[in-house]
Each structure stands twice: as structure tokens, then as C-alpha cells.
Write a structure and sequence with these properties.
Layout: H1 16-27, H2 32-37, H3 42-53, H4 60-69, E1 74-80, E2 83-90, E3 95-97, H5 102-106, E4 114-120, E5 140-142, H6 143-153, E6 168-171, H7 184-195, H8 200-204, H9 211-223, E7 227-230
């Protein structure tokens, strides 16, 4: 088990400057992203390093998508203004742990959140046999609504690479979005995607939508595990090529 970079059970949020000093002193490396990634499983590390090899940095949404694909529990240290907010992701259990109330977290400027460090999760989910490693119950919450808000209001305004390119999209009939706060044109688009298959250009022309809102919706649906992506459907076009680049 890798040691946590935040004291276990500490309710106060660490200052970003103190966190950076801690990482520099403990790792002897100013590249906090690389020092964190090096502790991950090889398959997840290779996935995340795609962005580094393309001259980009994997943002929060890209890292969350990789976390879900690999079903890996991760601890993400996020900078919000001058404080660090640790988020522990449990993709299999569809839970998230945060020391501040989830509603308070989602009220932050989500587009300004910056990932400074990623490491294997220290905490365990509720019900785990190692009770000493389970956090306080009130700090756990459902993962779905958090992923939804980060996709719609976070920094990434382009399609995730996994769903970009020549493609047509539809929602699986069994997708449950009741926990999400969806209304208006967004709810209409979700209902429409359950009935018909469309490409990015088509969705962007629906009432209340433009290209960016369409891409954010598709990212949000993908992270909920309910987006069906077809590369061979007649509606698939090349409209999405390059839209996965940040």
C-alpha cells in the first residue's frame, strides 16, 4: 500500500503551496504529475501517458475516464483556488469520497480544478472488511452525479478521445439517470437519444444546443456507462475527427 500524501482523517484542507512543498521534499521531483503516475498500475499508467506523449497533460475528466475504464480506485489531489481537495474514486462501487460535502464540492468553479497528483487510493469503500481504512460515512457519495457535473461544467469542452472520430451515438435503453439534475433541453436531448441515433453535428443543431454543449453531453453520458458509439452506422460522420484533442 502506498502512503497517502494527506494525513488520514484530517478534516482541514491543505494549502496548495504546502502540498507542492511536500511533494517536492518527498519525491525530490518538481514534476508532481509524473511522480504520482509512476505508482499506478502499468495499464492505467500507459493509458494516462497517452496525453503526455501527445504533448498534452491529462485533465481531470480524462483521468476519471481512465479510472472508470480500468476499474481502478484512485486518489486525486485537486487544486481549488489555494487549497487541495482530495477525491477518492471507487469506480466499481460507483462511489466517491470527499472531505467536504459533495454539494459544496460541486458548487466550486469546476472548470478551474487542476489535478496536481494521482496515486492509488488509500481509503476503502463502506462495508470493506478492513474497517480501519474506511472513512466517515458522511464523506461518501454517489459517483454518477459528480461525473455528470464535471463533464458539463469542467474544463474539458471537447469529446473524450474514446468517443471522438467517425461516430454516431445513442443511449442504451437501460441507462438510469434519475440521480442527475436534468431538465429542459438537456432532458429532451437525453430522451431523443434513447429513441434515435445521431452524430455530433446533428445533436449540436438540436434546440438549446451548440457544438460544445453536445460534446459535453456525450462525455457525460459516456462516463455514466450508457453511451453506445457506432463507427459503422449510416449516421456516423467524420465530424468528430480531432475533437478529442484538448
Amino acid at each position: 500500500m502506498f502512503p497517502s500524501t494527506l494525513p488520514f482523517g484530517e478534516p482541514d484542507l491543505m494549502r496548495a503551496s504546502a502540498f507542492r512543498r511536500y511533494l517536492d521534499e518527498s519525491a525530490g521531483d518538481a514534476d508532481t504529475r509524473a511522480s504520482g503516475l509512476s505508482t499506478l498500475t502499468p495499464s492505467l499508467l500507459m493509458d494516462l501517458l497517452r496525453f503526455e506523449q501527445q504533448g498534452q497533460h491529462g485533465g481531470l475528466l480524462e483521468i476519471l475516464a481512465a479510472c472508470i475504464r480500468h476499474a481502478c480506485r484512485l486518489l486525486l489531489h485537486l487544486q481549488a483556488d489555494d487549497r487541495m481537495v482530495p477525491l477518492t474514486m471507487f469506480p466499481v462501487e460507483r462511489l466517491v469520497h470527499c472531505p467536504m460535502p459533495i454539494r459544496q464540492f460541486m458548487a466550486l468553479r469546476l472548470g478551474d480544478l487542476r489535478v496536481l497528483h494521482v496515486e492509488p487510493a488509500l481509503l476503502r469503500p463502506p462495508g470493506d472488511r478492513v474497517q480501519a481504512m474506511v472513512g466517515e460515512t458522511q464523506h461518501y457519495g454517489p459517483l454518477g452525479p459528480l461525473l455528470w457535473e464535471l463533464a458539463l461544467r469542467g474544463s474539458r469542452a471537447e469529446l473524450l478521445p474514446e468517443i471522438a472520430g467517425q461516430a454516431a451515438y445513442r443511449i442504451s435503453a437501460g441507462l438510469n439517470l434519475r440521480a442527475m439534475d436534468i431538465g429542459g433541453s438537456m432532458a429532451e436531448a437525453v430522451a431523443r437519444l434513447k429513441r434515435e441515433t445521431s452524430n455530433l453535428r446533428g445533436i449540436a443543431q438540436w434546440p438549446g444546443f451548440d457544438r460544445e454543449r453536445a460534446m459535453r453531453l456525450l462525455n457525460a453520458l459516456y462516463l455514466q456507462g450508457g453511451l453506445m458509439v457506432s463507427r459503422t452506422h449510416p449516421a456516423a460522420t467524420h465530424e468528430g475527427w480531432g475533437s478529442g484533442r484538448h
